[in-house]
Design goal:
mainly alpha, 3 strands
Length: 132
């Protein structure tokens, strides 16, 4: 049975998307009185632009762009240029490992060094921890 997602459910999923795995989100939804399968949560996360990452140190372009307050096309262009390494999850979904993002942010290409330097350090630390 396909029941429509409520605004409250969507708000909970968005709040937990960057912190918990799909299974953990399902458990927390259930504790709050909502019943959703892990596959339904996965589909909703993808629809909302989040990755349904099984481990928490993987990101997609949209997540990185949102946290760093950049356009997702900018992050995607960095991936296409080979500046950030990714692994392809399926079809068009790419995962960026935290260590690869950290490597990129520590040593960006010369022509975007100033742009990277202007990014708030707290946001970078949220994604990858302290830069050396």
């Amino acid at each position: 049975m396909n029941s429509k997602w409520t605004d409250a459910e969507i708000a909970i999923v968005e709040e937990m998307a960057c912190l918990y795995t799909v299974k953990q989100i399902a458990y927390r939804l259930k504790r709050r009185g909502y019943t959703r399968s892990t596959s339904a949560i996965q589909k909703k996360l993808r629809f909302l632009g989040y990755s349904a990452r099984p481990i928490l140190d993987n990101y997609n372009c949209c997540e990185i762009a949102r946290v760093l307050q950049l356009n997702s096309a900018t992050v995607w262009s960095w991936v296409k240029k080979g500046w950030i390494r990714t692994t392809r999850r399926s079809g068009r979904y790419h995962q960026i490992k935290s260590k690869d993002l950290k490597r990129f942010l520590q040593n960006p290409p010369q022509r975007i060094k100033n742009r990277i330097a202007a990014i708030d350090k707290e946001k970078i630390e949220y994604l990858v921890g302290k830069l050396a």
